[in-house]
Amino acid sequence: ASGCKIGPSILNSDLASLGAECLRMLDSGADYLHLDAPCSSGRSVFWIFLTQGSNPGLSALQADALTSEPPGKAQHFVPNITFGHPVVESLRKQLGQDPFFDMHMMVSRPEQWVKPMAVAGANQYTFHLEATDNPGALIKDIRENGMKVGLAIKPGTSVEYLAPWANQIDMALVMTVEPGFGGQKFMEDMMPKVHWLRTQFPSLDIEVDGGVGPDTIHKCAEAGANMIVSGSAIMRSEDPRSVINLLRNVCSE
Ligand code: DX5
Ligand code: ZN
């Protein structure tokens, strides 16, 4: 896709130095920041169980947390917690008005954080289709709060569920790992979703998130993704600028 944008995910960075890490990414040429905000917010009705397969990037504890939560018991949309709107507000103050914040809201009941995130300085509110009963109302509320709308689907969710909303959103996020942790293995079998969306909605921004790096960017580009989230591949590199450039170049070919 032409004009691909690269958004580093800071989930795998040193969260105690979040501001500095975001600055490092922006200085390295990041087009936007993908901020993963999983937090505790009530009962997840739509917890989807999938086996993780081989995930060498995960500790046993993380892999277990992703698959072992019983239905109805899940208090979090994902088995992890990072930060919420107070931290986003601080980041906005430190980084200034320019950087684009794509909030990946891995939360149950995403309705409750729209206003706080808007006030804190988020630019885009990306919520999970599986986490709400009323996507239409939520989309409207996000817009009324002055943010762009991103709609995410987990690997187990068929893209047909997203399609009815595609004309009302700015961006579709096709998860290429089970959300919750950085450093997992890219799920290539999600690419048909991206390709289908690209064919049906030529001007829609399509984001991929999870396991994307120099080894997997070709598949994403081929399928038609144009917003590329990459966490560990960029964060763990000694030369993040060259990784970001490589991803952008391959994707824009
Ligand atoms: C997964 C998060 C991703 C993650 C990506 O739950 O949504 O944004 O941080 O990290 P990598 O690129 O390491 O898979
Ligand atoms: Zn994410």
TrEMBL record:
Record text on cofactor binding: Binds 1 divalent metal cation per subunit.
Record note on quaternary structure: Homodimer.
Binding residues annotated for substrate, in chain numbering: S9, H104, G180, F181, G182, G183, G211, G231, S232
Residues at the catalytic site: D36, D209
Domain of life: Eukaryota
BP terms from Gene Ontology: carbohydrate metabolic process; pentose-phosphate shunt
Keyword Transmembrane helix applies: no
Protein name: Ribulose-phosphate 3-epimerase
Pfam family, one: Ribul_P_3_epim
Organism: Bos taurus
Gene Ontology terms, MF aspect: D-ribulose-phosphate 3-epimerase activity; metal ion binding
Enzyme Commission number(s): 5.1.3.1
Reactions the enzyme catalyzes: D-ribulose 5-phosphate = D-xylulose 5-phosphate
